[in-house]
């Protein structure tokens, strides 16, 4: 991109830094997550103490997540959470770590609880609360379905040849 070329040719440190961030940002918004990972990774490595480094680290983690590299994204969000400068940032990183853990089939309830504990009236506090509530509802509602279907079969209320007709209510007592 033009910004990548500017980053290579810029004579000043700040111009190279700004062009690299813009090139990475354009890759990210163009959904070229692999290129965004490369460019944001370069930015974080070369300008870790500079303006924009925290944003670049966020976009690096998010691009990694969007590219489907969940283990690396989990690690990056963990580093972000450990170095966060505010409760809101910590909450955001914990929330996304929990989401990734969920996608990886790992328990996430503790991370959601930690995120929620940092502030219940923030966006990520509410989102963490909803995820925790969903997991409780899901657990209570997924178990009866198979048992109800089995009870219906045993009572003769449905036949095996008709799987779409499983009743939502238990069979009446006779």
How does this model look, in words?
With 174 residues, this protein is mostly helical. The chain is 71% helix and 0% strand. It contains 9 helices and no strands. The longest helix is centred in the C-terminal third of the chain and has 20 residues. It is elongated, with a radius of gyration of 24 Å. About 13% of the residues have low confidence.
Tags for this model:
about 170 residues, elongated, mainly alpha, single chain
How many β-strands, per DSSP? 0
Q: Describe the main β-sheet briefly.
A: none
**What distance separates the N and C termini?**
75 Å
Structural class: mainly alpha
Total of helices: 9
Mean pLDDT: 81
Shape descriptor reads elongated
SSE string, helix = H, strand = E?
HHHHHHHHH
Percentage beta strand: under 5%
Proportion in helices? over 70%
The poorly predicted ranges are: 137-153, 160-164
| Gyration radius over CA | 24 Å
Summarize this entry quickly:
With about 170 residues, this protein is mostly helical.
Secondary-structure topology with pairs:
Layout: H1 2-9, H2 13-29, H3 33-46, H4 53-66, H5 70-82, H6 87-103, H7 109-117, H8 123-142, H9 144-154
Helix pairs in contact: 1-2, 2-3, 3-4, 4-5, 5-6, 6-7, 6-8, 7-8
